[in-house]
Amino acid sequence: MTDATSPDLPLPTEKPAPKPGMPFVKSVHVFNCPNCGGQIKLRALGATMTAVCANCGSVVDVADGNLSIIQQASQAIRETPLEIGMRGKLQNTVWEVIGYTLKSDKTGVYFWEEYLLFNPYQGFRFLVQMDGHWSFVKMIKQEFEKPSFNCEVWLDKLKFKPFLQDDPTVQYVKGEFYWRIKKGDRAHTEDYVCPPYMLSFEYTEGDEVTSMCEYVEPDVIRNAFQPPHALPWRKGVGPNQPNPYHLGWLTATAAVAFGIALFIHISTMAASHPARVLTINETHMFTDRSRDFTSDPFEIPSKTNIEVASYAPVDNDWAEYGFSLVKQAGSGEDTSAETHNMRQAIEYWHGYDSDGYWSEGGQWSTEYFSAVPAGTYRVVYDVDSGLFDKGLPMTMDVRLTRGTTPWSNFFITLALLAIWPAFEWMQRSSFERTRWSNSDFAPDN
Amino acid sequence: MSLKFVIYAAVVLLAFAYANVNGIVWASYFMGQGTASKTANHYHK
Hints:
Distance between the termini of chain A: 28 Å
Oligomer: heterodimer
Low-confidence stretches of chain B: 39-45
Largest sheet of chain B: none
Low-confidence stretches of chain A: 1-23
Helix content of chain B: 55-70%
Largest interface: A-B, 52 and 36 residues
Structural class of chain B: mainly alpha
Strand content of chain A: 35-45%
Strand content of chain B: under 5%
Structural class of chain A: mainly beta
Shape of chain B: elongated
């Protein structure tokens, strides 16, 4: 994040280590701004090289004691979400904000903030904020094999994918810094992501700094520093923001549920005893078109479904059967006269065209009467067919079987179980698409 | 979220088991075929 070196080492100190959870106690060194005479406070005395006057904005070199001005005041002092001097506890350490940098990308369109944090016993860290997304940044000293930007980088068994390279420019500074900094400074950066982490390489003349950025929820920043003003709203998806939609556990649970559904289906099939209750095998003529026929009565001993498997010897023709399953009044426990109605169309068409042979439909059709209560039933049926228009007879073959276990319930169950994971998957994918829309390129997986 | 899905899956599986035991064919309701009706009673004996 900076062009400095060795910033993460604890500063030499003779002070005893602080008690866990207690803010550190230290003094603030004050000197006068060589430009305006206002007070400049140094919090990281001994490490600070550059300080910015809070009154006039002049950037002052404080490293050698001559207090030379690096950059004259060029813009008004800005208010920032976290102000210099604020303290907050992050990762079990109390940090004080001592520096602030506003940077922009090379186009000058996108801006982000970098807060320099200091603890006399832990050294320096950064908080980076862009579009309401916060990262806690620590510099690391590790060599990487990184032949080119579009290659993945491995660190501690984590695979970091290349995300963005840029040439950021310092647009504004305030506070103090352990390196020389001024408005207009530029560097080259390459960022790799493995949420919630981001590996950032920053190159300046003759120097390379590697930083590990860990995503921090805005609420954590708010609770830690308790700023008087609201933090920036979170917009879009941060490069290293963890995806809140998890598929692993959901997929495993869905797979178990699928298995249970299959077990239920097979168990039901094994326990059921399908039995033929009626067979209709009759030849009908044109004159039967407007007639209703009534079957012999049959018994349904308990509530069940009835499969209606129908056949019609149609060839490039059609047939249609109408069935009413009529309960004999007074039979069974439920004495109401209930009717189940069904129409079955059977069509079979085939032939040749420019693409070769084609066919559509078939000579069989299977439908179900659902949840038929116990009782005595008859079937009232009618028949019609295209064969009648040609003066031909047609033999209808219909078989009614009770107690079957249709697969349709099983597949509907699978669909219902898959809806939730599918929705989660879509949300997860959308989240990743949004993340990678801000990248130089999307990964191949 | 995880517990909610477990509850959802359990409800779906219970409904599936209930349908299978009671001969309910869900597809019949989607297609409007073969389900009970108090009207259009063709036949009474």
